[in-house]
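Submission sheet (multi-component)
Chains listed below:
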Amino acid sequence: MPSNNPALASFVESAPPGELLDVTKAIKSILADDPSALQSLTPAFEKYNEEQFATVKLPGGSEEVIVSPHNSLGDGRYYDVASQSSFAFDHATQKASAVQSYVLESSRLDLIKSLLKSLSLHTTEHYPKSSLGVYPIENDSKIAILTVASKYSPNNFWNGRWRSLYIFSPGNGSLAGSLKVDVHYYEDGNVRLLTDKPVSVSLPSSANASEVAKQIAIAERKYQEDLNKAFGSLSEGAFKALRRQLPITRQKIEWEKISGYRLGQDIGGGRSR
Amino acid sequence: MASVDPLDSALDLLRRLNPKDVKKNVDYLCQLAPSLTEELLESVDIPLAVKRCTKTGRDFLCCDYNRDGDSWRSPWSNEFEPPVEDGEGVVPSDRIRKMEIKANEAFDVYRELYFEGGISSVYLWDMDDGFAGCVLLKKSVSPSPKSSGSWDSIHVFDAQDRARTAHYKLTSTVILSLGTDSENLGTMDLSGNMVRQVEQDMAVEDDGSHVANIGKMVEDMELKMRNLLQEVYFGKAKDVVGDLRSIPALSETNRDRATQREMINSMGR
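Outcome: structure written.
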């Protein structure tokens, strides 16, 4: 089996929120535990966890912290600003270990700390459960702001995740990012909601943390309202246009008389139009 | 650890991965585990392909049940497109083909009444104690340049003949894909499939009764499934988003709830 198997990487990449271990288990069974093929999954796991903003509770910690490309220290280690620690993350099992104290060195440290404070006010007001990360990136020229909220209910056959990512450039006040929602429902079926909304806001270059947090709150509220409306318009639009609930006569078909339905009706019968 | 059947694992995987990619994922699984190919192609429903019947000029739907190698039988002409190499390809017996023609006419009416467009195809085949078949329906729409949708229904059934009645077993899958793309919303894709089964005994006078019985069962099933899809796609999915993030501030919601509880408690006193 080739070590960079595109099929396996693609399976891992599209694992629904909270179901990576189930997907891995199924892959193992299909491959009859072929160890070389499983070994080849390591890069896919790493990519998945970083893209999905996987969260993990540190040994001895109480809050779940984020794993992402923006707080990676390399060699499978990541850091968390609030708890001032770094940790090793096992991408296959999604477990953390080898926690060490880690003091962030950044010329933006004050802004980062105020952003964490302002944004946590917003996240606790709008996410029942979420993790927040604020990290300096690109040699301190920009700040990455991440929020991830996951809720898993496998007993009821659904799982969901909301991800927000913003890149704030203190130099010019630009705040750009994306909001992504991923919902999986799989009782007697498999239904998936996947969304991606780019966000772009311009703030004054002197904008402080609470102004940034305010813009984020506005963008997210607006998006959630638009998304709720979109459910309604898809239901009333495309869904209704696909299949009627009942024929225009508002009566079910009389199947014994079905041959008579042809009379006086122009039925196209799947001819191309 | 007890070993899990690889086919069950493959089906479990397909129940989890993005349903929009089901065709690609089935192809991948067949590459990884060639021994599962036949069973996967039989048991996994993928969006229906459309072919044109050369003889009648009408479109028909393709699935594993009208396939012979790389050719598919048209329900309108009873001929394979393209013609099957080395031989004729399997066609139903005369009695079953007559019923198949009637069923195709009937579901053509059904399709027009419920879908007001789209394509339908019915295929029947002989069984030792009766017959079996599938009813396929497909429609795609784009009500605005920014949104689109497609519906594929795949109803597979068998009918076991008994004295004056028949026992019908129906397994129905609906694949529903909806998407929208706009500046306000970004991209939104809501896609998937749902499966339901039902068994029923119904009176049979002649072969015409079979067509009517199957028609009723499929009609009832699609009504039920349409309601279910509505509930899951526009109710459940939206509720989960609301569970992840709350538009009103949670402190206010919690305060309102506490007030409500207090009121209820005080009324009970």
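Remark: The first helix of chain A runs from residue 6 to 13.
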